[in-house]
């Protein structure tokens, strides 16, 4: 009886650890998407208005690739730990139930493992992936501020491992011919800027002249001098002394 109570307590503790790992996975997912979604101008603004939290976030965002690697390492460790701890704990709790239903030990074990795998996968996808990802995409500034400090601590705790992983990944990219790999996620091309500037407010009474001016300025590289010149015969002029 005491052994059964000890086993039950151990499984409950393992379930709590599994839940903690799900939340930890969600934290790293939220940090990753929030940092990637956050623009540099937003990070600068947060640094000016949020004290040391904002300044820390700006420093993190300035080394985006390194901290995204930290997020990936955290997600991987949390996911591996969840599979190692959560599934056996659920299975051990469910197996006595199937034993009482008259299933053979093999069938009871298989059924318990299948249901445990489904439950862990559901929690991992919903609470550890989809929910934090949606929160980070909708509120990147708030989530970035909230996750910057813990992520900063994790990055320096795992710095040797992150360094080895980044070096290995960069060398693999060089083997594929990617010698110069830079991060340009927050730089818009001229075509993208033209699309952004070209979006007029449908409720506006008159076209925005400022947007029109910027749109024409972006078209200048496609023009030649002749497009900007008018033949002398087409010019109407008046004498200044008249």
Automatic annotation (TrEMBL):
Superkingdom as given in the UniProt entry: Bacteria
One Pfam family this sequence matches: CNNM
Entry GO CC: membrane
Keyword terms, alphabetized: Membrane, Transmembrane, Transmembrane helix
Keyword Transmembrane helix attributed: yes
Key word Ribonucleoprotein present: no
CNNM transmembrane domain residues: 7-209
Coiled-coil regions listed in the entry: none
Transmembrane parts of this sequence: 12-36, 107-131, 143-162
Protein name: Hemolysin
Species assigned in the record: Xanthomonas oryzae pv. oryzicola (strain BLS256)
Organism lineage: Bacteria, Pseudomonadati, Pseudomonadota, Gammaproteobacteria, Lysobacterales
């Amino acid at each position: 009886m005491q052994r059964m109570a000890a086993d039950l307590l151990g499984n409950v503790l393992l379930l709590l650890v599994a839940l903690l790992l799900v939340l930890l996975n969600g934290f790293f997912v939220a940090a990753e998407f929030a940092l990637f979604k956050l623009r540099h101008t937003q990070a600068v603004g947060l640094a000016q208005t949020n004290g040391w939290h904002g300044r820390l976030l700006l420093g993190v965002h300035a080394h985006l690739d390194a901290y995204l690697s930290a997020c990936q390492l955290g997600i991987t460790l949390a996911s591996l730990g969840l599979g190692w701890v959560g599934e056996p704990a659920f299975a051990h709790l469910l197996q006595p139930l199937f034993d009482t239903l008259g299933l053979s030990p093999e069938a009871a074990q298989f059924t318990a493992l299948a249901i445990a795998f489904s439950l862990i996968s559901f929690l991992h996808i919903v609470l550890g992936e989809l929910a934090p990802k949606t929160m980070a995409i909708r509120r990147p500034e708030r989530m970035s501020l909230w996750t910057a400090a813990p992520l900063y601590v994790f990055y320096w705790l795992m710095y040797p491992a992150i360094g080895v992983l980044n070096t290995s990944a960069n060398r693999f990219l060089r083997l594929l011919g990617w010698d110069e790999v830079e991060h340009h996620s927050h730089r818009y091309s001229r075509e993208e800027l033209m699309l952004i500037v070209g979006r007029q407010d449908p409720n506006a009474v008159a076209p925005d002249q400022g947007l029109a001016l910027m749109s024409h300025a972006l078209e200048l590289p496609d023009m030649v001098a002749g497009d900007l010149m008018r033949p002398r015969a087409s010019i109407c002029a008046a004498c200044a002394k008249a």
